[in-house]
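Fig. S4 source data, part A: sequence.
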Amino acid sequence: MSRIIGIDLGTTNSCVAVLDDKGQPTTLAAADGERTIPSWVSWSVSGQVAVGARARRQGVTNASATVFGAKRLIGRKVNADDVSWFARLAPFRIVAAPNGDAWVRIHGQPISPQEIAAHVLRAVRRVAEESLGEAVTRAVVTVPAYFDDAQRQATRDAGQIAGLDVVRILNEPTAAALAYGAHRVGEGRRIIAVFDLGGGTFDISLMSVENGIFEVLATGGDSALGGEDWDRRVQERIVDEVFDQHRIDITSIPMAMSRLREACENAKKALSTEDHAKIALPFLANDQHGAPINYEKRIDREYIEGLTKDLLDRLEPPCRRALEDAKLAPNEVEEVLLVGGMSRWPAVQAVVERIFGKKPSKGANPDEVVALGAAAYAGILSGDSDDAALLDVTPHDVGIRVGDSQFALMVPRNSMLPVRAKRLFATTTENQRFVSIELYQGDDQDVSRMRKLGQVVLDDLPAGPAGSVRVELVITIDVESILSVTARELRFGREASVTIRPSGGLSQREIVEIIQRRRLETQFAASLPPSADEDGVAGGVRVTTREQLITRPGDPDDSGKA
């Protein structure tokens, strides 16, 4: 069978790794020598799709059709607060799918985040195939530990669209700890923390490591907090300054916003090691009289930290809650491992040191360590390595709706995986033939502030007086934190018919339609003559063509914009 690769599907960049001939995980480089691929996808008017570095370069000249940060949208609703905030400054349109999910509109076509993520997964898969010289069909794909069931399912759907058998969804902090080699350091039981702040998500995981076994004790985080939020704060301030000086709202100018976004990100990166940085944007836009607007500003760390103090403040509560859930004092944590590009920011490292009372470890590249851990775990699954075992936990409470808005807990957060919970239900009317139950996931007692996973409908119940028919509902969460539901009618001991109506995501029919359309696009791309301008290579990643005449039934209109 083909090798299992490890993929870190990141908000900003993605990375692929595999075990080498010596059994050591190693990252693979694209044709341009880069080991990380920007998680960017761009569509030209003629239908060409670029992925990676070339797509990122098109972020200025083709801003409205170039998508970044799709991981922040995957498995999310368009009316979520952070999605609306993202939409305000994104140069591309974020629209509502028929089920309320957040999609993007490109050249009049609505596209799901799963399909966008599939383009990136397909690109990193191609990097692996070109590096290894063999076909690759199986992968371990990492996700933030704080991803809920809908986001995990959406990631798995993206893998299916990309033609990958996702053999395991693995939590990023757990993968990082494995790559750090935390199980090979010292004797006896050690308590470590993995602080993972990437481009769009934040995770904190506390785990015990002993005799090659990683046992996650507690996890927490914020799936709507990442380095892009720091960039966006600077963007917002400059947008306001330009408006105050010139009475021009540059948020309506995609090219200007793309240039501004890139300049803010570069300034932030420079300030992670330097004291000062300069943002220079000549000819950013034209004022009301047609004269060019030339923006220039010299900034320092204090400037950005003043704009983002509330973002830093959001890092501490999840850490404190994870410590409380694990019943640990900060001084019991022996080592804190840093993961994610934003963990390079000095103020973030200062927060970590203040919370845990020790300087964090910086012994690995935070951009590659998750992919390396995924490859190491792929080796464990394939039998090529057996020096570690992972015991993970659920990231959120799972339960059912009771009454108007109350939540009845069935599986508490930080339960060891796999886990199973049961609950009995009885009919409330005579000859009742079905029972409908709503499933929720989150960390609140009010279901209006939680994620609705779906509705479970138990059909074909036997006739009988009210209360005489009882049904046992069983919720199972596997080692990947993927949820499944079964039910059994107790009087006759037979399985009840269970239909789960998800509140979002792609149906299997939609996934098949996307895959079939993809095949047509590939055939169309193969029939095109090569051109100097669209040569089929995007930063080492081959480009394919999207047939513009193919449309989806039931597309949302522009009124669904976030």
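Fig. S4 source data, part B ends here. The domain at 397-502 is CATH 2.60.34.10 (Substrate Binding Domain Of DNAk; Chain A, domain 1).
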